[in-house]
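Protocol step 4 of 6: structure prediction from sequence.
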Amino acid sequence: MKQASNSLLTFYPIPFKAKPRMPEFLRDEAPVGGRLFTPFRICQEMSLRISISFLLELFCMLRSFVRFRLGEGRIRSLLSAICMILFAASLYAIEGRATGPVLAILKEQVSVTSNKVVFQDIADIQGADVVQLEILKKIQLCDAPPFGIALTLSQNQIREQIQKAAGFIPEMAITGAAIVQIKLQGKKISSEDIEPRLKEYLAKTTSWKESEIEILSIENLEGVELPLGAVTLQVSSRKAVMGHGRIIFPVEIVQGGQVLRCFWPTAEIRIHAGIVKAAKAIRPGAAIAAEDTVLLPAEIADLHGDYIRSPEEIIGKISNRNFAAGNPLTRGAFVNPFLVKHGETIQLRLERNGIVLTALCQAEQDGRLGQTINVRSREFSTLLKAQVTGRAEVRIQ
């Protein structure tokens, strides 16, 4: 009696069977952990070296197109496909991130607001990889210089700092300025910051009051900045240069009691004040009377002009120049009259410890009020020095 063949066993060879890469044997000859498998031929357990190469024993090699469609090959093949897709995607992402050209164009001069200088402060950085650009932009190159001092970095120094922080980037090109000048940015100064200080300075050094001074404009402030924080401005004690309606003056920037910088702006100034003018023509040698003067408001451009501010200042004085009606009167054009004349007899007063003595003497020279002149005593013919105190009067203290 013939034994019926096991129809459940796979006939060999199968028309669609690919050439096996592993030795095969029947199910009955290959129990694995007591579990039953399909009656198809299965592959041997792979060695550790081979299993690592196929993603840590997640799958075996496909045995045939038929087996791929049937049995245990379906699950394992699906796992292998997913792992291969994820692995390829990760490789593509890493490769795409690591590659890509980068161009950095350095600037010649930059002003920074932070105490730390980063790459994006000094260069325009271009590239396709956004993540890589963000990393490069935030690389710290150096500390910002103190305010008022410029720091320079060369291309080689910048390239070395980039390589220390991010490593060698083969497709990165650095162009632009050969040397970058860096300074700490401050607050821009305006004319409103200087105007009160200038008025205060002019009120101290001239005869004008702050309320009489009008500042039309202040120039030469380009490139001048104030450091961040508490600072003060002051007009230096150095002498300013004054012209007709203009002044060049030194301004110091002070922080923490230390002068950080001194600069020289130019200001255009007008004075609005009342001054004494000639009410009529005045000739040299004429003594000034009250009717010769008039007080009128005026706009004055000459900051050096020492104008008479009140008629009482020159009443009784002598003019030493001509003045037309309406001309402003200046102090230098008038002198006190001679109260003592050479050769005349005058009265001499001597004051000591509250005791007053008087005597007659002879003036040896002309003298105005307040001047010290030589006089000679009539009794002793002694030459003395005395101060003119009034008409034909001198005093010795």
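Step 5 (inspection) to follow. Residues 241 and 364 are 43 Å apart (CA to CA).
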